[in-house]
Records
---
Amino acid sequence: MNKVGIYYAYWTHDWDADFVPYIYKVKKLGFDVLEINAGTIAALGADEKKRLKDTAAETGINMSCCIGLPPSSDLASSDITVRQAGINHLNRIGDAMVECGIDRLSGIIYSNWPGSFEDRGVTKQQAWDWSVASMKEAIKKAEDLGLIYNVEVVNRFEQFLMNTADEGVAYVKEVGSTHLKILLDTFHMNIEEDTIGGAIETTGEYLGHLHTGESNRKPPGYGHIPWDEIGASLKKINFQEWVVLEPFLMPGGEVGRDIRVYRDLMPYADLDEEARKACAFTRAFLK
Ligand code: MN
């Protein structure tokens, strides 16, 4: 049975947060997993990392990490010092994950986010080649530490290297490590893929993580994403990994700015109650 989780930033305006209270919150709401920001834990002291690990263990909640790398850590940069800084940053994150008891990292870890193509002055193939070469280095850390890294396929308005499941599979095959897999996200697939079920089946054994949310970034059930089709395709590929909800409802702060939430998507909603309903909805379509 898939573990079901939610991304902490559903509740926050800023990317940095104390994740401990959210471990208790998601436990109370019925989740198995809290997904947290990898950049934040990479900057924590040893005591704070231990506190996170101990709280998760005590509550039985699993944690996963996600990040969109900043331009200073772009693994596809034309500047070799920036690519190396990106590899170093991923290595710091890997070490911090082990200290926190976390075994999987997902997101835009192969370039920067949001990442545009036009100002690079190189071909997409050249940026791709730099990214693949950087990832071949970075993934050694995951292999040494027993971690899984998942590259997130996102829509064209947020990144240019991988917009479809086909491109994600090509990238992972080219890097060629069993520790590198793919994160698909229903919000992004809805924009780019011919069919969402088809994209999941194309990804197949390479699918390591799934983000869910509606076409409008509301919780599942408030848009037109085909949840039954998704459930059937996940079953077809025998997907056993984690499904993490990633709705964003609130404008304001760093999160509202970077996700481009310009209006209150569900005014007067009780966020906790919506999360509880979304968790139950998710378990139902995964059955
Ligand atoms: Mn996502």
---
Amino acid sequence: MANHDELFKQIIAHAKEYGYIFPSSEIYDGLSAVYDYGQYGVELKNNIKQYWWRAMVQFHENIVGIDSAIFMHPTIWKASGHVDAFNDPLIDNKDSKKRYRADVLIEDYLQKLEEKIEKEVEKAKKKFENFDETLFRKTNPNVLRSQEKIDAVGDRFAALMNETDLAGIKSLIEELEIACPVSGSKNWTDVRQFNLMFSTQMGSVAEGADTIYLRPETAQGIFVNFLNVYKTGRMKIPFGIAQIGKAFRNEIVARQFIFRMREFEQMEMQFFVRPGEELKWFEYWKEERKKWHLSLGISEESYRFHDHEKLAHYANAATDIEFRFPFGFKELEGIHSRTDFDLSQHEKFTGKKLRYFDPETNESYIPYVVETSIGLDRMFLAVLSNAYTEETLPDGSVRVVLKIPAALAPVKAAVLPLVKKDGLPEKAREIMDMLKPKMMCQYDDKDAIGRRYRRQDAIGTPYCITVDNETLVDNTVTIRERDSMQQKRVRIEEIVKELV
Ligand code: ATP
């Protein structure tokens, strides 16, 4: 198997070749960090959305969904803190003229140290029988040295970020001798703050202002509709409001394909609870969301929680669910206990009471909020990169197969007449018509059957249904399963039962 960079490039190329993801405006040479989803991509994306929506809204009687507008009153972003504080620290390399996120340069440095530790562990694992990893990590001098450095730099970095000490961040980059990956030089500008919100103009907005923002998160659409939903839905605490929608961030450096985009989608849920009960619910949602991820059959080793030690001023607990992407463990989903910060701010800025009357305690209060926030596109990338497999078959040939969980696969079944004659296409069409109302299917009669199987493997279709001469005699077909490539003979009336 190729190294991680190579593998990632192959996944990107595969996504394009098989109609999953195209660079936006490609015939105009593309638009940086913006992507379009192709014919299979849109199906996978819709299936992920549906899988999330069902788990969050349909399965929880106390969660309802909304779909709020992208444009919102500009003061909302003042109240939420985004106008003043939704910044990333940016730094330029004077020689290459390349721009970086200063915090990411330090994070990458820390990640390299972690990779060094992992390498030591892997090396030792191969060398010793009955290898005790915990003991090794506690005693090996190389590991200890790297770990000490990670802890020391990590603590200092967190403190600098917390205090928004831009000069301190620059000093740290210099002390660690971090070089520009392009020029190799350490000739850096000062660190500056950069607001990530996109703004645009709208005819007439309140208070004469005409600047409005493309929302950088969907959550505020939920907060400002809290009263509407609470009253009209006759909701009782604890209850949640979920939303899937576009968000926009003018990311300084948008690399890594659909991992960091300037236009992306979020699937967010704000859970409103009694003050004082938020940490209990925070733990509950950590578990629930983990279960959701594991229910897709992706291995547990691909996930890890990363608890935030330093918290945003409005949060009293936060964790990231990180996924092992081809470029390492990175945030896939955030779970945050946001206290009553957002609703309190909207109360302050609007003068309207955003309170819940609790019939059990006879009190009115601003609910506390636990949110779960996952990037749809990042989840897409997690599913895609986990699915991409190159396999050498017994005959020496290599097949590329997308082992996408069947529940999410863009096409559930392909119907393939063995040959394009003898009445087989007609029979296959009958089967297509039978399956079409129940699942997304594809009919294909072009090329030899082996090539058609490969094409479906590359798309990630879990089942191929082949119609042959026997079908005309006894009404049976073969069903080939994508991952095992096992085939079995099934009666046409039983196909649906076999596939679900
Ligand atoms: P990061 O630290 O990677 O920039 P974040 O902590 O700013 O992410 P949140 O504000 O917590 O992210 O957003 C919630 C989720 O939205 C993230 O976990 C991620 O899955 C997704 N997300 C955030 N920014 C982007 C982006 N630029 N492109 C794609 N998905 C994103």
